[in-house]
Amino acid sequence: MLYKKMLRDLSNYKIQFISVFLMAFVGVFIFAGIGEEAITLESNINNYYSDTNLADGWIFSTNADNALVEHVNNLKPTTAIERQFVITSDAKLPTEPDIKLHFIENNTISKFYLIEGEKINLDDENGVWLDKSFADARNLKVGDKIGFKFNGIEIEKEIRGLGYSPEYVYDLPYYMPKLNYSEYGFAYMSYKAFPDDNIPYNVLNVKFNGNAEDYSNLLADNLKDSYDSFLPREEHSSVSQFNHIINLFQMISTILPTVFIFISLLMLVTTMKRIITHQRTQIGILKANGFKNHSIIIHYLSHGSLLILAGSIIGLISGPFFINLIAYKPLTNIFKLPYLMPSGFMNFAYIVVIMFLLALIVSYYSIKSIVSEHPSTIIRPKVPKASTSTFIEKFKIWEKLSFNFRWNYRDIKRNRFRAITTIFGVMCCAVLLISAFGLYDGLNDAENWQFNKINHYESKLILNNNVSETQIHDVSRQVNGVEIIELVTEMESDHTKKYASLLVVNDTDLITPTDKYQNKIEIKDNEVSVSQKIADLLGIQAGETVSFRVHNTNKWINVKIDKIHGNPTSQGLIMSKNKFNELGLDHYITSIISAKNVTGDYEGVKSIIDRQDMIDSWRELYKPLWMEVYALMFFAIVLALIVLYNLYLLSFVEMEQDIGTLKVLGFKTFALSKILLTQSIIFIILGSLLGIPLGYYVLNIIWKSSSEKFFILPNISIMNLSCTFIIILTVLFSINLYFAYKIRKLNMADTLKILE
Amino acid sequence: MYNIVEFKNVVKEYKSGNHVLKAMNNVNFTIEHGEFVVILGPSGAGKSTLLNLLGGLDSVSSGEIIVDGNHIESFNDNELTTYRAKNVGFIFQFYNLIPNLTALENIQLMEDVVDFKIDGLKILDSVGLKDYANQFPAQLSGGQQQRISIARAIAKKPSILLCDEPTGALDSNTGVSILKLLQDLSNYKNTTVIIVTHNELLTEVADKVIRIKNGQVESIVLNETPKKVTDLEW
Ligand SMILES: Nc1ncnc2c1ncn2[C@@H]1O[C@H](COP(=O)(O)OP(=O)(O)OP(=O)(O)O)[C@@H](O)[C@H]1O
Ligand SMILES: [Mg+2]
Asked: Does A386 sit within 8 Å of B136, measured CB to CB?
């Protein structure tokens, strides 16, 4: 019979229980879905790196002879080493795509990952193992022949196999405008496939123990001039670009989904508590009729907890599936990966257990406290907390205030739990909406900052590195361009060492540095500016000194930081050409930027990247992230709708009896729904006011925890605020319409029969 | 004296599925201004239904209900609300006080539906509960709650007072004091009081007794010499 009662209760409280189910579902759906996606990325890349034994670092040398190999091998931390000759060639195909050739002595470090064809055979003089993405884009098959040109040498090989390489997960050569797998790629061949016996080896793939920085110092101390540079794994562009994306994924996969789960947990427990408290007299009747405490407790425990369990299990399974569905395509578009296996859903199974247990515990304690009262007192409604009239009620004006105001004032005063829960719920919804929309704003803001506030050039001409000064000046004049140098540096403070960028540019309208608030600033000819993010990471401030060296050089330079600028994705130093030279540095011009849309061929220009290409490329890179942000926004709205609806429904149910009586006594429907509306407006205003600063705070944490390359200040746009406000208000008014309808339909004769 | 209430061929049907139940089947009667009326009948006869129709809580299926010359069966929602607010006072078996308001506040609440000032304490005094003004309903006994609910009803100065088993949940002594309050209202304040009850004894104190059975009027008896409530033998 009690079982029957449970089913009845479920159907009487249908809407509350549906919302309990949905809240559990949405909370876990997002938490597990977004969380698993970050885990998927991380575990897949880790598996891939270990399957292929990705190098810990690369030593570049124009003359990687046996002596050097031996020397490196003799260094204590070195555990394995493998020598390659790596060169960019033109494939003999239409448009001459750039293929990076790896002539290898061995295939044990940064191994080629074969998908089809035969395994790499180091004795094969005529075979080539080709980039599968490139082969697919060019419709090349195993068995086809392909020719390459480099340094005046031409070779032709037969494709033996197609596959991937861990060094090319993110593959966009710096001079390429955007990802386009038919225009470039890589290939592996045996050293025997090289036409000459004297192979000019130039790269050593190394595996070593200990950290990269120590190893780098060790190399510098021991090898002296016999090598050009050392690149640790984390700085390899493929690895770092992938990490950048993983970091962004992790950033949005931790804080905001936690807010989701927190809100749904909180709403679940308060809903359970309120439903049970509302059944107080029923519990008393059961008890008065001799039902044992434990059977009453079990009866009520099974109420919502089972639905919460069901909702969260469904969320746990479908969330990761759904997020993977929307993120998979954009991810595989930007990364060359042989596999991207979903990590399943078990990583977040614990949240289901927590949800279920918490629901049980809260239900248990709320029933327990009712059941342990004497039945005679339970049957009577609970005596409201005796409240002395507050001083406002003692004044004469109190009498003058509207009924609406007085009713709500007292109602809120006497039902503090309900009021606080509602305000808190609204606040959480505001935080959720503001931070979800804030992510959207932030990503848009970063793009706008990058392409509309800092960089104003139309074209960027990437120069070859052996062009004469006069040639460069000649091109600059022709395109009316500005010459810039872009380099990688290492920066060091007392605390840490970071890789950073260095931009050498004279005052120009084409690149206008801004502060972190995106306001234009001027970096004078004799000044050095460092970006806010690097300054934060290194713990330095304007006026302090920092040391840096251009990557691949040994000369550490101390420089005083004059200014701090802001940049969404490029973190490092900016200085003028004069300052650069004054610091004793010299470097060839790396590119020319121009306000014109430059096309055509110029002597010494490797490629031309135009503005639209850069924007497209940016968008492609952030697309997987966008998909998640859209999902977050959508489900934030859904969750907010459910939570708000649930809160008002609970309030309505709790006030229903009184409202019915008031209606019998002759109060107008309009006056009664106005009471509810007034109350909701008060709650909404208070909740939102609390939610805005908290939302800002959450957003700040999100952006702060993002990738080391990414910088954006939390910004709550008017758009964001209005959307949040409109959503909350829309919910409020539609719920109120519905409640006005319910009040009108409220069967007065029935209200009088019920004694709660 | 004139007829303040008139029921003409009133029918009230409840549909459940394809089954139709006539809770009120062609009911006719009149009640004079200031009369003390008792409605009697077995359980399920339709007494509460009658009261709900008269109080404007529910609408008729057919027939006419005329109160003070107004056809309330043709009232719309708004008119019914005004009617409830101005003309009718309710007293329920389960009191139906607002649990979150004190005794005094439950009475003062009525100021918001009528257009005159209510002296809550004076009314509380008239039902003998001046000392309980600041208690919440849950802190009062059933009889006390019922008296608050009477106080709430008379605070509106209604022309008709509708009472559905006002003493149903009370012991006889308490019941007597409640009934005395109601009879005094009829005798001295000229309020029309209509009481629904199971209690045969009350026929002796009523001016008019209407018996209902199976949704129909069984008999209407006028009592020339009604007893005082306090003279009843319980
Ligand atoms: N909302 C309803 N829906 C369907 N039938 C109803 C409804 N309300 C009352 N009835 C039926 O109408 C008939 C009259 O009910 P009513 O409540 O008027 O009886 P009553 O005379 O007040 O009985 P009691 O003395 O037990 O209170 C009953 O048969 C009841 O089942
Ligand atoms: Mg009845």
From this structure: yes
Q: Which of A394, A338, A398, A404 has its CA nearest to residue A111? A: A338
Give the length of chain A. Answer: 756
Q: How far apart are CA A232 and CA A244, in angstroms?
A: 16
Cα B47 to the chain's mean position, in Å?
Answer: 11
- State the Cα–Cα distance between residues B212 and A504, nearest whole angstrom: 102
Does A387 have pLDDT greater than 60?
no
Q: Which of B78, B94, B139 sits opposite A755 (nearest CB)?
A: B94
Whether ipTM > 0.90 holds is no
A418-458: per-residue pLDDT in tens? Answer: 888 888 888 988 888 888 899 889 999 999 999 999 999 99
- Residue of B11, B12, B14, B162 to mutate, ligand 1, most atoms within 8 A of C-beta: B14
Tens digit of pLDDT for each residue in A474-532? Answer: 999 999 999 999 998 989 888 788 889 999 999 999 999 999 999 999 999 999 999 99
Distance from CA of A663 to the nearest CA of B (A): 8
**Which one-letter amino acid corresponds to residue B206?**
A
Q: How many residues does chain B have?
A: 234
- Tokens 């009230």 -> residue: B12
The alpha-carbon radius of gyration of chain A (Å, integer) is 33
The whole-angstrom separation of Cα A434 and Cα A692 is 7
CB-nearest to A381 from B78, B82, B99 is: B99
Lowest mean pLDDT segment, chosen from A6-10, A512-516, A602-606:
A6-10
Question: Quick check: A749 and B52 CB within 8 A?
Answer: yes
Q: How far apart are CA B203 and CA B198, in angstroms?
A: 10
Instruction: Examine the pLDDT at B211 and tell me if it is beyond 70.
Output: yes
- Average pLDDT of span A562-582: 93
Residue A17 is predicted with a pLDDT of 81
Q: Which of A552, A557, A19, A625 is nearest to A270 (CA)?
A: A19
Neighbours of A396 (CB within 10 A): 6
User: Are residues A114 and A165 in contact, defined by beta-carbon separation less than 8 angstroms?
Assistant: no
Q: Quote the strand ranges of A379-507, DSSP E.
A: 459-463, 481-492, 497-504
Strand, helix or coil at A280?
helix
Cα A54 from Cα B234, distance rounded (Å): 101
Cα torsion A611, A616, A617, A623 to 10°: value is 150
Are A725 and A434 within 8 A, CB to CB? no
Nearest CA to ligand 1 atom 18: B46
Q: pLDDT by residue (tens digit) across A201-228?
A: 999 999 999 988 889 889 988 887 888 8
CA-nearest of A509, A503, A528 to A455 is: A509
Query: Cα–Cα distance between A9 and A303 in angstroms, integer?
Result: 8
User: Is 0.80 topped by the overall pTM?
Assistant: no
Residue with tokens 């907890």: A305
Q: How confident is the model at residue A393 (pLDDT cuts 50, 70, 90)?
A: low
Residue B62 phi/psi, 5-degree rounding, is -160, 170
A131: which residues sit within 8 A by CB, 6+ positions away? Answer: A99, A162, A163, A164, A165, A168, A181, A185, A186, A187, A336
Question: For residues B116 and B140, is the Cβ–Cβ distance under 8 A?
Answer: no
- Bridge partners for B221 per DSSP: B209
Q: Do A666 and B52 touch (CB under 8 A)?
A: no
Tokens found for residue A288:
């008065």
CB A239 within 8 A of CB A166: no
CA pair distance A339, B47, nearest whole angstrom: 78
Centre of ligand 2 from the C-alpha of residue A609, in Å = 87
Among A323, A45, A327, which residue's Cα sits nearest to residue A170?
Answer: A45
Q: Is A386's CB within 8 Å of B55's CB?
A: no
Q: Whose CA is nearest to atom 17 of ligand 1?
A: B48
